[in-house]
């Protein structure tokens, strides 16, 4: 999804590995077979809130920022 944000850890420069905790509210069509097996179809995200973003390398001690859309992303030298 192109609207997903990018992140950068300002502590270590990480641009690729983050633990993102979200709360998501969805609406989906549940289709059960006669035998009771479930297939979820037509899932639609109604709301999604990002609760926390942690750098996978620094953990909670890292400071993560969201990179504004369109900003060039270059790794630290």
Helix and strand arrangement:
Blueprint: E1 6-9, E2 18-32, E3 38-55, E4 64-67
Antiparallel strand pairs: 1-4, 2-3
List keywords for this structure.
77 residues; mainly beta; two-stranded antiparallel ribbon; 4 strands; 0% helix; elongated
User: How many domains, in number, for the residues?
Assistant: 1
Q: Give the percentage of residues in beta strands.
A: over 45%
Low-confidence stretches: none
SS elements, strand count: 4
What share of the residues lie within helices?
under 10%
Helices and strands, in order, run as EEEE
Strand order of the largest sheet: 1-4
Structural class by helix and strand composition: mainly beta
Query: Using only CA atoms, what is the Rg?
Result: 18 Å
First-residue to last-residue Cα separation: 29 Å
Main β-sheet, in a few words? 2 strands, antiparallel
**Can you count the helices?**
0
Rounded mean pLDDT is 89
What is the chains' assembly state?
Answer: single chain
Outline? elongated
């Amino acid at each position: 999804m192109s609207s997903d944000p990018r992140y950068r850890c300002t502590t270590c420069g990480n641009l690729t590995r983050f633990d993102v905790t979200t709360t998501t509210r969805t609406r989906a069509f549940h289709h059960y077979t006669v035998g009771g097996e479930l297939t979820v179809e037509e899932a639609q995200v109604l709301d999604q809130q990002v609760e926390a973003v942690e750098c996978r390398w620094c953990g909670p001690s890292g400071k993560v920022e969201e990179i504004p859309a369109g900003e060039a992303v270059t790794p630290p030298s």
